[in-house]
Amino acid sequence: MNQQLMGNPELTVTDAAELHEGLNHIVVDSIQYGYQEMIMEKDLPVTMVDGHVLYVNVFRPNKAGQFPVVISADTYGKDNKPKITNMGPVWPTLGPIPTSSFTPEESPDPGFWVPNDYVVVKVALRGSAGSLGALKPWGLDEAKDYAEVIEWAGRQQWSNGNVGTNGVSYLAVTQWWVASLQPKHLKAMIPWEGLNDMYREIAFHGGIPDTGFYRFWHQGLMMRWPDNQQIENLPAQQQNHPLFDDYWKGKQADLSAIHIPILACASWSTQGLHNRGSFEGFKQAASHQKWLYVHGRKEWETYYTREALEMQKAFFDYFLKGIENDWTETPAVSYELRDKFYKGTRKEAKAWPLPETTAEAYYLNADSLMMEQQCPAEEAVISYDSSSENDEVRFTKTFDQKTELTGNMKLKLWVSSEEADDMDLFIGIKKLDRNGAEVHFPDFNHIEKGQVAAGWLRVSHRALDTERSTPLQPWLKHEERQLMKPGEIVSAEVEILPSGTLFKVGESIQVVIKASEVIKGSSTFGAKTRYEHTETVNNGRYHIHTGKHYDSHLLVPVIK
């Protein structure tokens, strides 16, 4: 073994309280390599073109040379220790998150990267951690700052000129944005689960405002930086912009402008936040060299596994160091086909959506509450009370052969109401075992008893973008409201977020339709770390029409 990677057990790990501004010689408690000496430059100022100063921390090898840079940027605090590793009593379902003591949450770990001859740069974006100015998450201004720091890092004497972005969540969102600006020193990116459509993926779900995590997250920014009076009021923007207008368009990066190599990670288990955006980022980026890694487990736990770290390193070794490893033989798409909780099979594909996908319709029958291969010959109606959190409708199909469903699903419903001019539809897709018991999966946000997939729709938002829609993925415009008339039967298509699940003979798929959240509650005591939707338009009884002229159905992605 390389002696450098052995570490030295006789060293003493540096206490963060001992750090000072400028150059520090430190010892880091690397999980992978033992106690490691390195250099940390703390609170380095980087001046933007408009005169604002951002501050960064730099971790680099304790030796001469020029090294590639692994960089991440957010407004959480560059000196913030990984508090997520200490939240067991409050957030008991996070899973193991092994990092060194110098790893800010969701960030690349210096304890892994520096011993492998990389420089790690952590950026405090404008409005955070001493960097003054307006804090406006996930927009062009923030991306311009990030691009300037990338160019700065590429010019430093310890840099070989090759910079790669890396990180989870917020740190992935900023990657999609900055890569679209094409800074010349940015050579590769690892966006590990991050949204890129702020309207559809966090602020609103199917046009229904998220009153849970979206607002909780904004409150968290306010609590981190209580002295900053220039933090964008995201809840107010949500209230003032209920439709997809120029404000929300300004929160979207031009993914087609991204051309650098990408290793993107997506998860079946972050639906309602990062799931959709991770797939869309991969699909829409113009990069010729791009890879997609998909799992069905927990976000932070998976990012810091040794398997994931070695995959990230192999990618950066190839594109930032020029090492002729076998990275280019990596399948373009690698995904976990889930069987049950933390049990699945890894599969490979050439593209996403999977080229071998066949769209099959399972037609709803309101009489039998089953899903059938053919549209029922007779019309039928089933109703539920939108004022009741417990009233719901479930349709079930039992499989007579082993079936893989991987990709987006679409639920087409014919609906009506005598009392309401609008409806909020909450959709859950579930797997049942041969005994009829639900098979649970990890779900957002780190909950244990999650479902296969989810979808939402405010029916007045049902207008489709016909150019962007595909048979399995309706693309909703969200640009106007189309209210219903009393008794009018309208057709609505619900986007069901991507998932990958195996159904064996005798197992069943179930569609849940109701007027409130299918899965309620949070995995965190006293905090709204999961989406919720309490500002609904529900009123009275809702009717689902099936059969004959009303081809209500679930369209599923069968992999042959």
In words, what does this structure look like?
There is one protein chain. It is built from ten helices and 27 strands. It is α+β, with helices and mostly antiparallel strands and 560 residues long. It folds into two domains: 319 residues, Alpha/Beta hydrolase fold, catalytic domain (Rossmann fold, 3-Layer(aba) Sandwich), CATH 3.40.50.1820; 203 residues, Sandwich (Jelly Rolls). An eleven-stranded mixed beta sheet has the order 1-2-3-5-4-6-7-10-11-12-13, sandwiched between helices. Strands 14, 15, 16, 18, 24, 26 and 27 form a seven-stranded antiparallel beta sheet that branches. Strands 17, 19, 20, 23 and 25 form a five-stranded antiparallel beta sheet that branches. The longest helix has 16 residues. The mean pLDDT is 96.
Q: What is this entry, summarized?
A:
The protein has 560 residues and is of the alpha+beta class.
List the helices and strands and how they pair.
Blueprint: E1 22-30, E2 34-47, E3 53-61, E4 67-74, H1 110-113, E5 119-124, H2 140-155, E6 159-168, H3 170-180, E7 186-192, H4 198-203, E8 204-205, E9 208-209, H5 213-224, H6 234-240, H7 246-249, E10 262-267, H8 275-284, E11 290-295, H9 299-303, H10 306-320, E12 333-340, E13 343-349, E14 357-365, E15 370-372, E16 380-385, E17 392-398, E18 403-416, E19 424-432, E20 438-439, E21 441-443, E22 447-450, E23 453-458, E24 490-503, E25 508-514, E26 541-546, E27 553-559
Parallel strand pairs: 4-5, 4-6, 6-7, 7-10, 10-11, 11-12
Antiparallel strand pairs: 1-2, 2-3, 3-5, 8-9, 12-13, 14-15, 14-27, 16-26, 17-25, 18-24, 18-26, 18-27, 19-20, 19-23, 19-25, 21-22
